[in-house]
Amino acid sequence: MDKLKHPTVRREYTGIRKLPQLWESVRKNRLAAVALGGNQPSPEGDSAATLVAALRAISQDIGGIVSVSRFFRTPAYPPGSGPDFVNAAALVATDLDASAMLSGLHAIEARFARKRDLRWGARTLDLDLVAFGDAVLPDPATEEHWRTLPPARQSVETPDRLILPHPRLQDRAFVLIPLAEIAPGWRHPVTGRSVAKMLEALPEADKAAICPI
């Protein structure tokens, strides 16, 4: 039996409230969007079980889960580099500031045996802070620099500080497809484009490769 489709796993993550309208009703500077993913087993089990456990850890250590997307199966990049990923997105209401929240997410990753040996490589758990309300960090010029970085430089250059919104948000179907389920109307505070519009602009082939599980 495919563990990704195990009924007890599906019941737990689909039981978390799906209330995308709260994106507008909760104070925006304390509602964060988190992208979750993984393609290697962790101490909690397979990738789906790991994401369920990670959501539980986020709710205990960082803040309440306001809404969570379905789980999606995503091909590893580059093609053939490893097993498919399982991806999801969640909205989290928190009292932490953005830097403290990022530290908390990294601590949760470490508990699930995340190793950072290879950029864009296989991993047990990836928790990306995608957006923190309408925050632009550290400043609009730095955010624009990293957001518009040419593709050839993206694989060899990484920022040494937190950049928000995540500079690759608009490029990643595996982030935008889950995020569009729970926050389609959120607008990038610099470009003004909504999650729905950013997703619409992506190549159809990128979107077609990502399927709910």
Overview of the molecule:
The chain is an alpha+beta fold and 213 residues long. Strands 1, 2, 3, 4, 5 and 6 form a six-stranded antiparallel beta sheet that branches. The protein has a single domain, classed as 7,8-Dihydro-6-hydroxymethylpterin-pyrophosphokinase HPPK (Alpha-Beta Plaits, 2-Layer Sandwich). Helix content is 35%, strand content 17%. The radius of gyration is 16 Å and the shape is globular.
Q: Can you give me a brief rundown of this structure?
A:
Helix content is 35%, strand content 17%.
Mean pLDDT: 85
> Which strand-content bin applies to the residues?
15-25%
Topology-level CATH name: Alpha-Beta Plaits
Output the radius of gyration: 16 Å
**Low-confidence region ranges:** 1-11, 13-27
Give the CA-based shape.
globular
Helix and strand content put the structural class at: alpha+beta
Q: Tell me the name of the CATH class.
A: Alpha Beta
Architecture in CATH? 2-Layer Sandwich
Total number of beta strands: 6
How many structural domains does the protein architecture include? 1
CATH superfamily (homologous) name: 7,8-Dihydro-6-hydroxymethylpterin-pyrophosphokinase HPPK
Instruction: Please write the string of helix (H) and strand (E) elements.
Output: HHEHEEEHEHHHHHE
Sheet having the most strands:
6 strands, antiparallel
Distance N to C terminus: 13 Å
